[in-house]
Amino acid sequence: QVQLVESGGGLVQAGGSLRLSCAASGTIFGINTMSWYHQAPGKQRELVAIIDANSGTDYADSVKGRFTISRDNAKNTVYLQMNSLKPEDTGVYYCYNQIQTTISGRLYYYWGQGTQVTVSS
Q1: How far apart are CA 43 and CA 19, in angstroms?
Q2: I need a labelling partner for 115 at 20 to 30 A (CA). Which of 34, 36, 55, 85 fits?
C-alpha cells in the first residue's frame, strides 16, 4: 500500500510564494515520474509540472518561470516551489506519482489527497 501525503498549501497574497511537498510512503521500489496537477474551482484538473527519473522537467505555459518542480529520491518526495503567485493559481494542488511497488518492476499511478492554495488579490 502506498500513500502520498501533501503539505504546504495555504493562503497567500498575490506576488507571494509557497512551497508544496508530497511525500510517498509504503512499499516502494522506485519512483519514475512525479508531477503536480492544479484544479481550479469549477474546472478540470490540469498538469502543472512534471519531473522524470533523471530530473528532466516540463511545465505548463501558465507557470513557466514562476514554478519549479524538484525531487528528493532519498525521501521519496516531490516539491513544487511557487513564486509570483497569481489569483488564478488558486485551487487544489495534487501530486501524481508513477511508483514501482513490486519487485517485478510494474508501475502504478497514485494521487495525493490534495492541498488547497488560495491567492488573494
Answers
A1: 23
A2: 55
* pLDDT tens profile 54-105: 999 999 999 999 999 999 999 999 999 999 999 999 999 999 999 998 888 8
Whose CA is closest to 37, among 120, 114, 118? Answer: 114
CA–CA separation, 73 and 107 (whole Å): 16
Q: Which grid cell is 88?
A: 488564478
Residues recorded for the chain? 121
User: Smallest Cα–Cα separation from 2: which of 116, 115, 106?
Assistant: 106
Strands (E), 27-84: 30-39, 45-51, 57-59, 67-72, 77-82
**Which residue carries 519531473 as its cell?**
51
Cell of 8: 504546504
SS3 state of residue 49: strand
